[in-house]
Design a protein that fits this description.
Low-confidence stretches: 365-370
Number of strands: 27
Helix content: 10-25%
Strand content: 25-35%
Number of domains: 2
Largest sheet: 9 strands, antiparallel
Mean pLDDT: 80
């Protein structure tokens, strides 16, 4: 079945909680709880499933009826979600691959760029990629190095100049055309790179807890939070496969240009269908020995993955959240960060292309959450 893609544009700011409670640490409350962005794929997937549940007769409160669950949680044909990506104008953006780095002249300081208005058009301000000096790739070293893990291959830049230092491209996103080049170890054009300051900005909010019995505020319950305000030409994109086409009355379901609840504080967004997305080109490489992690992947121990020669990866992220059905917090679980690149010792086989399913923790296999997490693309080096 073909994957159906949705484009989501917020009507105001968005707020996505991390695993920190508001009331555990006074410094967190005073400084403001920060919103994570982009949101977890499970958050966006849950919001889309809620829309379809309402189309099938769910009131919007309480648990789903069994007939609705049977439609949306069918184990024989489960819903399959893509990762959560961004779209700027007509370009789909992905987290920049971690093996793409900048070679910066040692000791040279970059000129400061005004970021007070990050959503301005690129004609009105210098693009952040103009700061880059030279792009290069990290690849596995030719020889092994002795480390506390034993003799291992380490990522390095071939023929690196002595007067340069390696800098990661933190906070950058890359277009689909640029990522296709990266997966072939070809330098992308710098115009394919966008800094996150060109995509969204942070906005502080202040609120107070309300007593639902008296409809008045609770004394001493003042809090602050930091929301995400996306630029006007930026939206969230996610793909879904196996969505039901009929409701319980056998009426056709159509979701297009509708309001949805997304994230915390009952913020709203507009959701529309989009048919201009095709990821199939990423998996067309026959001799693939490079894996690009496109969405958070629940691998608790990266060192346990077989056939990995070396990796370019930041520290694992921890994803928790809130279960709105049981009204309980979700445990924080380690995930590989999107943009992580794994270099394999040998070319991938069909079995190895399902590596994320084999090495995910058991609770994700049982809950079929691998149908939400763990999207990856393949390349060669």
């Amino acid at each position: 079945m073909t994957m159906q893609f949705f484009e989501i544009k917020p009507t105001d700011t968005l707020f996505f909680r991390d695993g920190r409670p508001f009331n555990q640490d006074e410094t967190i409350t005073l400084a403001g709880v920060k919103s994570i962005f982009p949101p977890s794929p499970a958050t966006v997937a849950g919001a889309i499933m809620a829309i379809y549940a309402k189309k099938m007769g769910w009131s919007g409160c309480g648990a789903w009826e069994k007939s609705i669950k049977d439609k949306l949680e069918n184990k024989e044909t489960p819903l399959i979600f893509s990762g959560v990506f961004l779209k700027k104008g007509s370009d789909i953006l992905f987290p920049v691959s971690q093996h793409l780095i900048e070679l910066r002249p040692n000791g040279k300081k970059l000129k400061e760029i005004d970021n007070k208005n990050p959503c301005q058009n690129k004609e009105e301000k210098n693009r952040k990629f103009n700061e880059l000096h030279e792009l290069a790739f990290l690849t596995p070293s030719k020889d092994t190095y002795k480390t506390d893990l034993g003799e291992v291959y380490l990522p390095e830049v071939k023929n690196q100049k002595d007067e340069t230092v390696i800098k990661p491209l933190d906070g950058y996103w890359i277009t689909q055309a640029g990522l296709e080049q990266c997966l072939k170890l070809k330098k992308p054009n710098e115009s394919t790179l966008y800094h996150q300051s060109e995509l969204w900005q942070l906005e502080s909010k202040t609120g107070i807890e309300r007593n639902y019995e008296t409809h008045s505020v609770n004394q001493g319950m003042l809090y602050t939070s930091t929301h995400i305000r996306m630029c006007t030409d930026v939206s969230i994109v996610i793909g879904v496969e196996n969505l039901p086409t009929k409701n319980l009355k056998n009426e056709t379901i159509a979701i297009n240009n509708e309001l949805m609840i997304l994230g915390g504080e009952a913020r709203t967004a507009n959701i529309t269908n989009t048919n201009s997305i095709d990821f199939s080109i990423f998996n067309s490489t026959k001799n693939s020995n490079l894996i690009y992690i496109a969405s958070p992947t629940p691998v608790t121990d990266p060192q346990a993955i077989p056939n990995v020669k070396t990796a370019c990866m930041p520290r694992q992220m921890r994803i928790g959240g809130w279960n709105s059905v049981t009204f309980k917090p979700l445990p924080l679980t380690p995930f590989l960060v999107p943009g992580t690149v794994l270099f394999m010792k040998t070319e991938n086989t069909e079995v190895e292309k399902n590596w994320a399913d084999d090495w995910a923790s058991n609770e994700f296999k049982v809950a079929q959450i691998n149908k939400i997490y763990g999207q990856s693309f393949f390349g060669e080096c």
